[in-house]
């Protein structure tokens, strides 16, 4: 789970004169330093998944990474800081993996495309269910953690909003919908259904979940029943 060189994610800019804090804010200056930082992020991911956020300690992370405790504080100022960055990296990876998992034939219908996108999301959610559950849990602790939870959620929703706007411009989706609120509601539907199912353990059948999510999504944006919005917009049904 390598972070990008020079990234400022998860680093608190304080303007303090503390040399160690300045090193954290400026980021690793060498390839070896970047590798060490990535090593700590990988170790933190492993520890958080194994022990949860509350029970995980910085000592556990440095033990997993096989580095001295002082090395940790050269790159991160707290457990909270490294957790926030791990969460952002997980979500970035999830978004890339969802795109890679969504393979759709060119001749596929819009409903089939929606279904493929949701199937890809379910597959990736399943692989990351433990970390997603931790984000939900930790998001209740402090304003900073709630902000992190909202931030990682918005990254996915912003992508969905761009897709819906393109579909509206192409005459595929209902142009009367508010793209922002529509994806907020549909995203919450998919996200919470997967949370109840894959994190809390509600015994849903995968095909039932996929079919229901696809139907609600398609009908909401007007793919399954476009006659009403096309007529209201003064456009003849296709």
TrEMBL record:
Residues 34-94 form the HTH tetR-type domain. Keywords: DNA-binding, Transcription, Transcription regulation. Residues 57-76 bind DNA. InterPro entries: Homeodomain-like_sf, HTH-type_TetR-like_transc_reg, HTH_TetR, Tet_transcr_reg_TetR-rel_C_sf. GO terms for biological process: negative regulation of DNA-templated transcription. GO terms for molecular function: DNA-binding transcription factor activity; transcription cis-regulatory region binding. Gene3D superfamilies: Homeodomain-like, Tetracycline Repressor, domain 2. Residues 1-37 are annotated as: Disordered. It comes from the Bacteria. This is HTH tetR-type domain-containing protein. It comes from Pseudonocardia halophobica. The lineage of its organism: Bacteria, Bacillati, Actinomycetota, Actinomycetes, Pseudonocardiales.
């Amino acid at each position: 789970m390598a972070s990008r060189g020079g990234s400022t994610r998860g680093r608190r800019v304080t303007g303090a004169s503390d040399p160690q804090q300045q090193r954290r804010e400026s980021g690793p200056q060498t390839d070896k330093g970047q590798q060490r930082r990535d090593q700590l992020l990988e170790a933190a991911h492993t520890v958080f998944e194994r022990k949860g956020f509350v029970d995980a300690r910085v000592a556990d992370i440095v033990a997993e990474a096989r580095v001295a405790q002082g090395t940790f504080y050269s790159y991160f100022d707290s457990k909270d800081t490294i957790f926030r960055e791990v969460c952002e990296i997980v979500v970035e990876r999830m978004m890339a993996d969802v795109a890679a998992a969504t393979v759709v034939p060119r001749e596929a219908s819009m409903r089939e495309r929606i279904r493929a996108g949701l199937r890809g999301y379910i597959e990736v959610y399943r692989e990351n269910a433990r970390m997603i559950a931790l984000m939900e849990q930790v998001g209740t602790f402090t304003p900073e953690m709630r902000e992190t939870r909202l931030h990682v959620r918005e990254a996915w929703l912003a992508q969905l909003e761009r897709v819906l706007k393109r579909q509206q411009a192409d005459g595929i989706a209902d142009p009367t919908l508010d793209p922002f609120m529509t994806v907020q509601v549909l995203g919450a539907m998919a996200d919470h259904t997967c949370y109840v199912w894959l994190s809390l353990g509600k015994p849903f059948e995968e095909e039932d979940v996929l079919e229901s999510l696809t139907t609600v999504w398609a009908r909401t944006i007007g793919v399954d029943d476009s006659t009403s919005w096309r007529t209201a917009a003064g456009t003849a049904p296709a």
